[in-house]
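Report of the visiting student (M.T.), summer placement. My assignment was to run the structure pipeline on a short list of targets and document each run. The first record concerns Sortase.
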Amino acid sequence: MSLTKFKKKFWTILPNFFIVVGLLLFSVAIIPYLRDEVWYFLKQHKGQEFVLGGRGQRDSVFARYLSVKPILVEPVNKQFGIVIEKIGVNAPIMADVAVSDELAYKESLKYGVAHANTSSYPSSQPGNVYLFAHSSLNFWDLGKYAQVFNLLRKLEAGDRIHIFYEGKDFEYRVVNKEIYKGFNTYALTRPVIESLLTLQTCDPPGTTLNRLVITAKLI
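After the run finished, the structure tokens were exported:
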């Protein structure tokens, strides 16, 4: 093959190569998100429950996708952790993360949900416990907990959220769900007169277009 023909063939193949690579990368990125959606759909269809402190089978791929029996939830961290039975969240919480330090909070989010250093700790006293985490697609860059809040938008008023702190279980009930445009800090800085929990993540997952904010009250 002449050099001219080779160059012509090369420049013909190259765009197709990049298209294929792009589609493969997109598929790899979207699979965890689709996996969560499929799991949630099956869970709702089967009527399967996650049971905190009750009886049930151990969490596994088989239990989540094939079984209809309740799944027993054992908090991964009772010193500071979060459990949301409805959407299968069970993660440690990294305390006192600076929301203004991008490198610091990105590193913290590799190991769990982040607790804003300017917010309160779980307590019966008035305060705002502000937690934030990824709902992202690029898990290879952001770590094990990159998709921990992928299903956060499924929460509705009345749903339960458990925050474990220093061995105690603080149970909250969802009262509000809002979408804020861009980097809006109101949910973090708002004045409060009761014990609140605020959960925040990006929306839609994998973008920085909006902030999804869930507000819950301590029971």
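The mean pLDDT is 84. Strands lie at 50-52, 71-73, 80-84, 89-97, 113-116, 127-132, 160-165, 168-181, 195-203, 210-218. I thank the supervising group for their guidance throughout the placement.
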